[in-house]
Amino acid sequence: MVALRLSPLALSRSRFALSPLAETLGAVLALSRPHPAAWFADWHARRLPAFDAALAADPFAAGLLGLLGATTWLPRSVAIPPPNGLRTTLAEELAAVRAVPDAVFRAELELSRAHPHPRYAANHRRHRDLAWLTGRDWGPRTADLLHALWSAHLAPEWPRRRAHLERDIAHRAGLLATRGWPGALDQMSRHSSWEGPDVIRFGHRPGPDRVIGAAGLLLVPVSLATGTWLCEGPAGHYAQVYPARGAAPAHAADGPGHALARLLGAGRATLLDALRQPATSTELAARLGQSLGTVGGHLAVLRESGLVVGTRIGRRVVYRRTERGELLVADGEGTPTG
To answer: Which residues pair with 199 in a beta bridge?
Structure first.
């Protein structure tokens, strides 16, 4: 199991990022493997027929995506660290895929072929050879394929998925501020662990340990994956992809308790209850059917009371409940209302 060893500067320069390419790879893994996780089984069932039809029409697509779903070693020609942090676009990432020379591309696929996944390799009959790798310009062909998959399966949902990923980042940024990196990385994956002051273990990927230098480590959430993978770029740039918390924004079932509403007022209690999942003021206004001014006023009071805090992510400010806010809501929900 690979260990990521962080240099003294690495922790201070590590940060979160977003990657449409990683989200696309997560979709590929989800659709290429049987028995999807329960929380995206409906999405899987809706998308699988079109995905299978695309593979049946293109031997290159069938071979490449089948191999990606049947290996424990995602090739570095597609597992690329996002180049622009939270503002990374798919076009930027696919430009790097297009630039991979054929010799490098094939060498990476040979490594993937040499590391079959113990659970999924049997479902990919052609993982033992690369007979489907014909012609040339495999980097550009792969970039075109990934762009087509993005357009077909993810682009219409990206605004909602991006908001979900930003909420995960806001949650972990809050943990980082209060508990440090061990707290922020806790439970990113059931296979991850923090060992000592400067060593992280992620998953069961084989290979040598990596030393994370002054560039720091990028941490990239994705919404469809259930595992983690490491992205390696030039000059010691690394990104660790991990599954975001939950599958979709949670919906409050019953609203705030009566006691909490009497204490805070109905409007502020409803907003605090709605922050079961971190959200921006715009998202809260849309969810609650209130004006931005009303939501902003409630948030200001809740911030001054130490019940919520805002974290800036790019151009957005994502609000979440503080520990005090969590305790108050928990107490309110546990108070008898009859």
So the answer is: 5, 195
List, as own/partner pairs, every contact residues 312-317 make where C-beta atoms lie below 8 angstroms and the sequence separation is at least 24, other chains included: 313/16, 313/86, 313/166, 313/169, 313/170, 313/173, 314/86, 314/87, 316/166, 316/280, 317/280, 317/281
Tokens for 183?
A: 């707290």
How many C-alpha atoms does 23 have within 13 Å on its Cβ side?
A: 25
Q: Which backbone phi and psi does 112 adopt, to 5 degrees?
A: -60, -40
Per-residue pLDDT tens digits for 74-109: 999 999 999 999 999 999 999 999 999 999 999 999
The whole-angstrom separation of Cα 155 and Cα 218 is 23
Measure Cα distances from 100 to 9, 78, 142, 232 in Å. 30, 9, 10, 13
The one-letter code for the residue type at 94 is L
User: What is d(CA 117, CA 100) in angstroms, rounded to the nearest whole number?
Assistant: 25
- The predicted pLDDT at position 76 comes to 93
For residues 307 and 321, the answer to whether their CB atoms sit within 8 Å is yes
Q: What are the residues whose beta carbons fall under 8 Å from the beta carbon of 179, sequence distance 6 or more?
A: 186
249, 299 contact by CB (below 8 A): no
Enter the pTM of the model. 0.73
Strands 210-212 and 193-195: unpaired
Question: What residues are paired with 4 via a beta bridge?
Answer: 200, 210
CA distances to 22, 166, 267, 276, 292 from 305, in Å: 39, 24, 15, 18, 20
Identify which of 256, 278, 254, 253 has the alpha carbon closest to the alpha carbon of residue 265.
256
Tell me: the pLDDT tens digits for 42-54? Answer: 888 899 999 999 9
Residue 74 structure tokens: 């995602």
Question: Cβ(129)–Cβ(95) under 8 Å?
Answer: no
CB 56 within 8 A of CB 123: no
